[in-house]
Amino acid sequence: MPRARRPKKRRTSQAKDDRADHLFLDPEACRPLPSLAFLSPFLAFYAFGLIWVRPDLVARADLLVRRAIEPLGLTGVLAPTWLVVAVLMAWHMVRRDPTRLSGRLLARMGIETLVLTVPLFALAALSLVVRSALALSIASGRPHASPSWLAVAMTSIGAGVYEELLFRLLMVGGTLWLARKVLRRQSEGVVLAVVLVAAAVFAGAHTLDDPTRFTWASFLFRTAAGTYLGYVFAHRGFGIAAGVHMVYDLAVKLAVVWR
What is the pTM of this model? Predict the structure, then answer.
């Protein structure tokens, strides 16, 4: 009998390995070290642009992170970038994850990012249809000159990385970690509640610089988008969530440039 069971166990193990090699199923993509490796080229591009090309193209979320960490003595243009690296590396060490990485994994993360951006575009299109049906203004309220490709790339990267750092990695991830450690609970109901609260804060934060520009249409769309990004983060990790945010912002801003 023992000999008869061994092949069955090997087949089960092989099935798990095959399953993990497919899109949206590989748990490696959710881990902090692959997220850091996946985002590193974008962080390097953004840092290079801030230091040597256009310091004025700093993202609002980057500035918000700078203000938040200044009381801790963490200052400088690259302080938020190093914060991302430090948080992901600390998370990696706490989890005691393996350090292996592969180009195949990073490629799958890139494909997942592109695929998972599609529902966000669909959500934006639905929002535009609803606003038009209700005869609501969808203009920003103030004219903008067409930005350069560098401005589009840098602001998209900055928003994608640092907004996901604040509202998903720290707010959602931190709260879920506390719920698991302190309350010993992390059901889907807890995840939904945390994701919704973080999404509402995310939506409200977009009007901090000018509260007079608040509209319920924009708030509800950003709350819905934040909820979706929260679930992407919870189930596919920080790297892919930030990637989805970056791709969406990049596409929207390029559409304005090429209009």
Answer: 0.86
